[in-house]
Every structure is written in structure tokens, then in C-alpha cells.
Amino acid sequence: MKFLKDLKRSHYCGHLNKSHIGQEVVLMGWVHNRRDHGGLVFLDLRDREGLIQIVLNPSEAAMASAKEVRGEYVIAIQGKVQARPQGMVNSKLPTGEVEVSCSRCEVLSVAKTTPFQIDDKNVSENLRLKYRYLDLRSEGLQQKLILRNKVTQVVRNFFAENHFVDVETPILYKSTPEGARDYLVPSRVSPGKFYALPQSPQTLKQLLMIAGFDRYYQIAKCFRDEDLRAERQPEFTQIDVEMSFIDVEDIIQMAEGLFKKIWKQVRGVDIGSIPRITFQEAMERFGNDKPDMRFGMELQNLAHAVQGCGFKVFEDAVQRGDSVRGIVVEKGGSFSRSQIDKLVKTAQTNGAKGLVWMKSDGQQLTSSISKVIPEDKAKDIFTKSGAKPGDLLLVVADQFEIVCKVLSILRLQLGEDLNLIDKSQDKFLWVIDFPLFEYDAENKRWAARHHPFTSPQDQFMDTLLEGREKEYAGLLAKAYDLVCNGHELGGGSIRIFRNEIQNAMFKALGLTPEEVQTKFGFFIEALQYGTPPHGGIAFGLDRICMILGRTESIRDVIAFPKTAKASDLMAEAPSIVDRAQLLELGIRLGPQAEKNLESELNAET
After folding, report:
1. How many Å apart are CA 422 and CA 133, to the nearest integer?
2. Distance between CA atoms of 560 and 570, rounded to whole angstroms?
3. Which run of H or of E encompasses 184?
4. Residue 4 class from Cβ within 10 Å (0-12 exposed, 13-18 middle, 19+ buried)?
5. Are strands 365-367 and 356-360 parallel, antiparallel or unpaired?
6. Which of 72, 224, 587, 594 has the greatest number of C-beta atoms within 10 Å?
7. Contacts of 2 (CB under 8 A, 6+ apart)
8. Domains of the chain, with CATH numbers?
9. Is the dihedral of CA 271, 274, 280, 285 positive or negative?
10. What pLDDT, on a 0 to 100 scale, did the predictor assign at position 5?
11. Rounded to whole angstroms, how far apart are CA atoms 296 and 328?
12. Residues 170-179: contacts with CB under 8 Å, at least 24 apart
């Protein structure tokens, strides 16, 4: 194209301001808007740095070219920066004090009418994902991805300054149990064998410590075939970290240094020291291990308050050693019966047999169990919960895990519905002292709470080595999670570095020597060649950027995300492959998969 020989972009659109008045500039970008005001034509020209108003005068030669310009055309313009006329300043735009008087306009590329207006907020997500390249032109998404770039630069600079080595690890690797289903890749050269896409570089980063790298980090792509939600994707990015000759405090101090730097440089905020609570305290106070600390409404233990109240459900739960807990909704006494019924349904949907409620309108106390409990007992329970006149008390009696789950869900739902969450701030929290094991009732065996390489705390080493299974429920791990605004941003642990302890862990998990050799043989062999004490943590880069970007979904901070069904609507992936490819890989489809393939092939023809 001839014009490229004599026109070269001099500025980004969003960079122009009063200091450029009188300068001749060349701009290139997309036509965001066109307004024809009789004699004058106004164009809003957009690039990734922002938007500037272009003025075309009928006396200028550029007007002839501009007549054909429409929305999303790519153009180049040449002109002089001038102050906007008095009364025409747009204070909402960084460039709103100036405009460019166009003397030359060249169309670089024409555009079809787009299926939706760029920056239109009322477009279905599926349509935006189908035309993701258009959606990415919006200022909101561009700014979020630019923010992501800034975060990654801060991360890399931090680790470089602290003598970490950036090491890439394989994507095609061995299937190892990590807590979710693997994505498998068939091997053409070894028929019947498969690679797994890594759920995390867990064993690899430990091998790097055995290899003597001492401080490793990687911004790593990871893959998990699991149920998706707003903060999950089948492929995600984590900041992976491992250090040698350290303990829990060293990891925590390193992580706090990283997040202080990120929040200071990206948001200009000093997050200060991060408080810590134990796993047990988190569960008892908030009902989950990643509590949102931006509002109160903590769980209240009512076991003592309900004793002798006459309500069999409460009394039986206390006698069994189960839990009776509640949450107080301040000023919730004004809730209608239909509002309360919705809360009851939510509780039952999430595993509760029922939800007891008591509310005060300031004068009278009413309750869902008023027919089976004396009024004075009801008032006593209400008062001991911390509720006041005008409040609402919600109570669940069941196993501890069910009570925690239900009340946690209700707490978060009410926090949102009642606008109790202060979304202008970010609240960080360390959760420490996690259980080493959790019991898998379905398979009647113990499972690792984090993963099988997590070290028990020192006082529990003998219990594990001696295989005292009756005490496993009380064993605590050297494990820690970093939480922000109710999201787990990172989790890690100090690793087992002695062979006898690792073997005891595998035995506790019910793995046979043959299973250990098949799944972890290479790793067990490596432990025998001098392994330093080591530990690490992995942070979710997508979630970090989601919080910094003030958005509710990690899809907004990923360039080309997938839907809740793990599909890419733009590229139409996953897609069918030629039968010859399947044959070459030695893959035979099951009946349902074969039926789906036939249906797809028939649709194509």
C-alpha cells in the first residue's frame, strides 16, 4: 500500500493532550464512532491506548476519503492537534481537551457490520465469546489484559531481584494423582500409552530442588479436567514457586513481599501485614477455608444455648456430638416469609435437612419452631447468638461439615444481597495448620488434604512413621493458603524430603509398593540422592488479575477463555478429527462417542 511509505504512526490516540496542541500527528486505529453534522464530520478514532476525536472539514481533501468510512474501519489520518472549542471539552475522556483537525485520511481496511457494538454491555456472553476478537477491542477487556501484563512484569522483576531462577517444565508429562482428572494425550509412537497435561509442576519443581537450583519460579500453564465455574478454567496459569533450606515462615515472608509489591505497583495500595488464622478457626468462624473478611456475620456456636430447649433436632445433634450453629442477619427481622423461604430452600439444596429461623421486629419474636419450643427458651437462644431486636437468626443442626457448608453459602449470599461487602478494599488472610489427611468415606481410606508430598508438622512425625491410624484425623500439615476477598489465591506446603517419611505417607494413603513404583518410581529414586529441606507455593495468576481488575470471572482476564462446558465458541473446539488420525493413534471410540461423531459428520455433509 503506497501510503505506508510516507505515513508512519507518530502517536497513540490515547496519548494526546494539551501539550501536543499545534503538533502535526499521524494516527492509526479503528473508527469507534462517526457523526455527520452537516458540514463537519466527526470520527472517534480508537487504539489500545484510548480514543481521540477527529474533525474533518469539507474544505479539506481528506473529506472525500472519509465519506466512505464506517464503524470499525481501520484508517490512518494525518492532521494537527488543536484545542476543542469552548464548551465542547469532554471531561470523561483523558483526551477530551483536544481534537485532531484531519488533513489526510486513508482507509487501510474495511469492516463488515459487527454482530454487536464494541463496548455494548448488554450482549450475551456466548455471542461475545464467539466473536472474541471483537470483544477484545472493548476498552474494558483491553485494560484488563494490559493489567495482566503489568502484573506478570512485576512478578518477574520481583523474583529476579530475589535470585530465583525461571525454569520451564514439560507440558507432555506423566499422569500423577493431583486431585482432579487429567487431560490425556495419546502417543503415536508408543501405542496404548498416554502423556498427561500437568495439573501442576509439583514433582518437577521438587526435582529442581533436588537438582540444586535452590530458588525456582515459573509462570506455568496448568490443566485440570474438572467442573468449571467463574473462577475456574480447564487451562489456567499459576505462579509456581519452590525454595530450599526453608520452613513455613520463609515461604510466607516471600509471598507477602510479592503481593505487597504487586498491589503497590498495580493499584498503589499498601496491603500491610497479612493476618493468619488456623484452618479450624476459619471453619468455625466462617464455615469455609477461604473466608471473605470484608464483612462480619460470623458463625455462632449455639450448642450450649440450645441444651434443654425442648426441640428434639437441636438436642439430638448436641447429644451425637454434631454441630448447632447459626448466623445473625442484622436488621433481618424485616425479611418477608417468601424471602426466608428462599433461604430455607438454599439450605436444603446444599445438604441441610432444614433451616430454623427466629426473627424480631423489635417487639415480638417469631420462629419456625415456635410450636415446639417455649417462648423464653427461644428468646434465650436468640439473645445468646448475639442477635438484637430487629435481627434475624438462621440456625442449622447437623454434622459439622454440613453445617459449615450451608451457613457459609448463606453468609456469602446474604453478604451480596444486602450489600454488606465493602468492595472498595481487598482483605488478605493466611489460613494455616491444615489437616494432613481427610477421610474418603466412599473408598474407606485416608486421602491427602493437599497432595502426598506435604510434610506433617514436626510433632506428628512419629505418628505417621509408626502408622498410628487412629490418630490420623488430628494430624496437621505444614500447609498454608493465601486468601483474598473469599478467593484462594495460592496454596502450598513444606515438602517431605526424607524417604522414610514419604514411604510412610504413601502407606497411610493405602498405596501398595507396586502402585508407588508405577506412579512415583522416578521421584522416589530421586529422593535417595541427597534431598534438601524444601517447600513452595503456587498462586493463581488468573484469580489475582480477576481481583485487581474488579471483575467476577477469570474469563475477563484471559484472552481466549472457554465456556462452562470447556468449549471454545470462536474456534469451535473441541472438534471432531479424521478417522485416519484416530486409527493412527490406536484409538477406538465408544458407542456414545461414535454416535456423536456420526452426527457431526452427517451435519457437515
Report:
1. 34
2. 9
3. strand 183-186
4. exposed
5. antiparallel
6. 224
7. none
8. 2-109 (2.40.50.140), 142-276+427-557 (3.30.930.10), 295-417 (3.30.1360.30)
9. negative
10. 63
11. 10
12. 170/198, 170/204, 171/197, 171/198, 171/221, 172/197, 173/197, 173/198, 173/204, 174/522, 176/202, 176/203, 176/519, 176/520, 177/451, 177/452, 177/519, 178/202, 178/224, 178/451, 179/451
Residue in 283, 588, 276, 248 with CA at minimum distance from that of residue 429: 276
Cβ neighbours around 603 below 10 Å, total? 8
Asked if the peptide bond before residue 574 counts as cis, ω within 30 degrees of 0, the response is yes
Q: 568: which strand partners?
A: 573
Secondary structure string (H, E, C) spanning 269-325? CCCCCCCEEEHHHHHHHHCCCCCCCCCCCCCEECHHHHCCCCCHHHHHHHHHCCEEE
3-state secondary structure 132-147: HHHHCCCHHHHHHHHH
Q: Is 486 helix (H, G, I), strand (E, B) or coil?
A: coil
CB 156 within 8 A of CB 149: no
Measure the CA–CA gap between 430 and 437, rounded to whole angstroms.
20
Question: Which stretch of DSSP H or E encloses residue 329?
Answer: strand 323-329
CA distance 547 to 230: 12
In this prediction, residue 163 carries a pLDDT of: 97
Residue 502 Cα distances to 202, 420, 472, 509, angstroms: 15, 46, 15, 11
- Beta-carbon contacts of 175 under 8 Å, excluding residues fewer than 6 positions away, are 182, 184, 194, 195, 196
Q: Which three cell numbers stand for residue 211?
A: 537438582
Neighbours of 314 (CB within 10 A): 24
Q: Is the dihedral of CA 364, 370, 371, 372 positive or negative?
A: negative
- The answer to whether residues 491 and 479 touch, using CB atoms and an 8 Å cutoff, is yes
Angle at 234 between CA 231 and CA 240, to 5 degrees: 75
**Residue 397 to residue 367: CA distance in whole angstroms:** 16
Q: Establish how many alpha carbons lie within 13 A of residue 26's alpha carbon, considering only the half-sphere containing its beta carbon.
A: 10
**Which residue, among 488, 486, 513, has the nearest Cα to 502 in the 3D structure?**
513
Residues counted in the chain: 605
Residue 291 cell numbers, joined: 473466608
385-421 b/e with 16+ CB inside 10 Å = b?
A: bebeeebbbbbbbbeeebbbbbbbbbbbebbeeeebb
Amino acid at 517: Q
**Cβ-proximal residues to 139 (8 Å cutoff; 6+ apart), any chain:** 50, 51, 119
As separate numbers, helices (DSSP H) first and strands (DSSP E) second, the chain gives 18, 22
Q: Say what the alpha-carbon torsion angle 548, 553, 554, 557 is, to the nearest 10 degrees.
A: -60
Nearest to residue 73, comparing CAs of 123, 118, 25? 118
pLDDT of residue 1: 45
DSSP letter (8 states) at residue 560 = S
For 84-149, give the DSSP string.
PPTT---TTSTTTTEEEEEEEEEEEE--PPPSS-TT-SSS-HHHHHHTHHHHTTSHHHHHHHHHHH
Three-state secondary structure readout of 30-85: EEEEEEEECCEEEEEEEECCEEEEEEECCCCCHHHHHCCCCCCCEEEEEEEEEECC
Give the cell for residue 97: 481537551
Could you tell me if residue 72 is left (phi over 0), alpha (psi between -120 and 50 degrees) or otherwise beta? Answer: left
Which residues make beta-bridge pairs with 156?
Answer: none
Q: What is the pLDDT of residue 25?
A: 97
The parts of the chain modelled with pLDDT lower than 70 are 1-5, 59-61, 64, 177-179, 230, 605
DSSP H or E run through 383: helix 375-384
Nearest 10 degrees: CA dihedral of 338, 339, 345, 349? 150
The cell 445473625 sits on which residue? 328
